[in-house]
Predict the 3D structure of the following.
Amino acid sequence: MRRAGRVAAALAFVGGFAVASWVVRLDRIVVSRFEGRQFRVPSRVLSAPTILYPGLDWRRIDLRQTLVRLGYRDHPAGSDMPVGSLHWGRGRVRVHLRAFDHPSRPEPARDIVMALSSDTIERIVELPGGREVGAVLLEPELVGAYYGPDREQRDLIHLSEVPPHLIHAVLSVEDQRFETHHGVDLRRILGAMLANLRAGSIRQGGSTLTQQLVKNFFLTPERTLSRKLQEAVMALLVEARYDKEAILESYLNEIYLGQRGATAIHGVGEATRLYFGKSVEDLTVGESALLAAIIQSPNRISPHRDAELAIDRRNLVLALMRRQGRISDSTYLQERDEPLRVAAITRDLGQARYFLDMLRRQLPTVYAPELLASEGVRIYSTLDLRLQRAATEALVQGLVEAELTHPELVTPGGDRLQGCLVALRPQTGEVLALVGGRDYGLSQFDRCTQARRQAGSVFKPFVYIAALEPDRGGPSITLASFLDDSPYALETPQGTWQPQNYDHEFRGRVSVREAVERSLNVPAARLGQEVGIERVVEVAARLGITSDLPEVPSLALGTAEVSPFEVAQAYATLANGGVRTTAHTFEDLVNGEGETLERRTLRFQRVLDAGTAYLATSLLEGVVERGTAVRVRAMGLTGPIAGKTGTTDDEYDLWFVGFTPELVAVVWVGFDKPRSIGVQSSHLALPIWVRFVREALGTEIRGAFLPPAEVTRVDIEPSSGALALAGCPERRPEFFLHHTEPDETCPRDVGGPGRVIGWLRDLL
């Protein structure tokens, strides 16, 4: 007997030690989670804010759909318009704009009315006073996020931000004795067991809110006795170590509440934005009851899936809240009769994934993928979502139409025709839109930033800029000069180089404008040799070309391989009057506490004098007015546009680069494995560009390319380039840098040399 007692004692000791060790191990797990990083919060990328102002074409920016995407909800007309609601009337729309934090452009909540004509915003007034305002900002839209492998999204909230009625709603249905139990509610467990026995199946669960949190934090969803025991012990440990407020806050941030596409929505902060398009502190009692109702089965009870079921479950929660004394009878009746008003569901913007990849590459090196997937950084990007959608549609539709028109471009089992489109704001370098291919799901290779293709004729303007720019006393040419378009042969180490024009014809003596407008190869090749290829390389690098450029004669015709993004930067420098900016994809990085971690400072560098930049722009305007890009006008665009087509040898690469006073866009089209397309750029790349710009800016382009002070305009005689005086039979206006006007005159030598006349004109 004594021996048996000793064995039992030993077994009890060993068993107790094992249980104690098990509990200690569970306690360590609890502490490590609660006192470490509780949640992985993906970093969010937000778009640039949308600016609304009188004169804006509200149809072109798709104002109605923009407000829907932002979660603004229809509300009956009346004086009491809640934040986040709107009402469309005849010729007007009233919107109670939300306040939003922004590192450089924070906005307060505003109740505004916009008077609308058929297509423009006529005026904006702020209520209740009726004061007219010049502009208002809509909050940035969510562009995307950098997820971890679980693709969970949450917007962390503090318990102090949660309205009491949301807490009451959750506790009424999930754990009404949360304030009094110690992690496990025996009374609830027994009640659930009886209910399940009566039903003959599992209909109710006995888990407390703390047990649900433990299960989500640490355990698998299987229903076994050992797992339930572990859940109960860990719940007791959590309650012993942490106060109710900390437990409730963790639960409200962790609970699963539905899906947005492939992304799981966790926590009431993110769910509030998904279902109601607002912040959690703005929830009404009825909305709080709906969120609490969804917890049981988020996808089945989702108001986006089954509105009637969602209302029934909401009203059941309201009834529980009234029965438990958490709301009054009048509140219950009022909220029960409220119609269901939920925000339209917005899906992940797949078109922006190329942009998101480029943004990740531009972020400071300290933001590694693991940190971006867990630290919850808010990234305020430069992306204009409207332009991004327009760019995606223009590129994809353009490529599809090209394949329909030219079925020989489609080879079964072969590579499909590809393309890319990138748009910048020249004054700031902001990347407004970027589409790196026709389908990100099939190919993540970004042809705008990662591909290097022969530039073709879009490189030629750099040759002319090198010749127009004053160097060691004066420019090599002016816009009144003539070039030689006759057969040309040049001996090189690789043999004789004999450039040909696209049509294999020669025109003899041609003006600079004709050479550029017709994109003639031979004059550009001769000019490249005259100014020196090394100088052409230096000019291209100053403007924004960063790829290595071989100093060979054929460089003048664009045989070097560059990325479309580099080309966009270089042309943006021209559009900005010779001032180069650093192209960038983000403005500010802000952490979860609202602290600015990184701010992009704009850097400006004058790399080309304003006069030469204007002369080059004027040449490229001629390409659109009379040259290879005249189809831009035929397709309906009016106003100031400069551009350049580019088609490489054998038609492997098609380019169109164009800019207006406020936008630069580059389109490239080709096959990933180069092969002949058999179509000129003006018939494939150019229409894509026009389609995009028409959607982005409308058919009437605003603004003007204004000549700077160092440029003068005089009339010349076209056939000779001489200064046209009174009595000259033909004349056309031309632009010159000061003191580079023609010396000869038409009629010849009447009134003295042209420079004297130019000097007198400046004096007067």
